[in-house]
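Teaching soon. Got one?

===
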Amino acid sequence: MNKTTKITTGTGARLLLTAGVASIALSLLSTAAVAQPARPGAIQPAAHADQEPINHLPNPYETQRNFGTLPDGRSWGSVSAVNIDIDGIHVWAGDRCGTNSCATSDVDPIVKLDPDGNVVQSFGAGQIIWPHGMDVDSEGNVWIVDARAANAAELEENPSAAGKGHVVLKFSPQGELLMTLGTPGEAGDPPTHFDAPNDVLVAPNGNIYVGDTHGAQFQNEAGPTAKSRMSIYAPDGSFIKSFGEFGFEDGQFRSPHSLGMDSQGRLFVADRGNSRIQIFTQDGDHLDTWYQFSRISGLFIDPNTDMLYAIDSESDENYNPGWQKGLRVGSARTGEVLYYIKAHDSERGSGMGGLGSMGEGVTVDRNGVVYAGEVGPIKGMTKFIPRLIP
């Protein structure tokens, strides 16, 4: 069943616009989206207008910046790929090699950190260009989305960077490459290729879900180059199916940027270009659409509590008017947003501008401690420690 749900916040505020404002907004909307914007992709589905921004909720977390010390004293680069280890305590992170790319680097981008921020394991040197998404499966294997190939300048500096990227890589906990989905170094369409994939999720039954096409969030209309989809692979890597396409309606996407799964086995897709979460069965049937968690870059659902953590690194007056960047925490069962952590102060904004900076990746340990991977003007990792949560 296709539906879009409107949810109240933890403060009980209604999330519907007044009838007068709604009627004005509806007069400006097409059946799918508002009029063409000035900036590429700065357009939202019609239903987005019904959602009042949620920017003011309690923050029960203590923020600790600059979590984690990398080997040899090297500096952190951008981090969007983060996930908790199967022990519930250690944290895996994909560092873009001190900058925003590993194409010209020989350091290990994938690191495993203990709760004190010490690196206890690392791997991946020379194998990954742009670590973007990550999952850790029930056996402790680490799945990495390498979202792009090396560009011309990078290839000129390091020709050995050719033939990498646009793939999903499965590593053992020790860093042995076990499986590759996609064709390294080539963009294309499933089942044999990906086109700038975003994230990967391994379901309890072993099926592999891949959210594909990073650049779709900057496109305004369907066309030959407008792609956006989810793909499902069996545990052995054989292709099962793809579902979804570019668009603004329920079941369509503009960059499925991050993935999560709740205790019921429902698949949550952070449809970043459309500033929403879409919820599906594991077969790809649409169940619901939520706008109350903002423009989500990273999504994590605690499988034990169904707490949902949605991190927003991009909202501004062009790409999500009225919303502020930050981390929103709520319930995957009810859709209620309970807490809000505002963005870090920074001279320039993360994403495409706006105020402040917030991470792209998010994960949570067994004690409810939140770890965020930072991109943009602020790099590295941030730790949010729950202090006032019952």
Q: What stands out?
A: DSSP finds two helices and 24 strands in the chain. Confidence is low (pLDDT under 50) at residues 11-37. The chain has one domain: 19-386.
